[in-house]
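Each lists chain and fold; for instance:
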Amino acid sequence: MNPHVIIYTDGGASPNPGKGGWAAVLYSPEHDAKREIYGGEHDTTNNRMEITAAIKALEALKTPCDVDLYTDSTYLKNTFEKKWIAKWRKNGWKNTSGAVLNRDLWEKLLSLTEIHSVKWHHVKGHADDELNNRCDELVRKAREELR
């Protein structure tokens, strides 16, 4: 049985595109342990930072895990839940608008979801969810540290 981990992620850029930050809070109920990670990029977009947050969080896991991943990005959640990513791959990484943006990140995230069993959950951003709000704070901190 794989360890269970709860992950909250967030990402953003201001302006969009502009200085961006990503963040994740990883929590192991089994060990009652919490870890926070974050980082930033100078010229990026909201979507790139949302995807990067999920990648960095899953990369931080040392062994295959059962993950409940909470995000305020419906784009990130729906890409997997609605199987958009499978359609993109089948169509040569094209969608109805043309080439899929951020293919490099989607491919990396897809490979990580083949290691970890990920259940995607949506959480309303800027609401009363403590860990989502903490991720938002860390995103702002990451952007500030770029200055």
Notes: The CA atoms of residues 56 and 69 lie 12 Å apart. The first strand starts at residue 4 and ends at 14. The helical segments are 46-59, 74-81, 84-90, 103-113, 130-145. Residues 4-145 form a domain with the Nucleotidyltransferase; domain 5 fold (CATH 3.30.420.10).
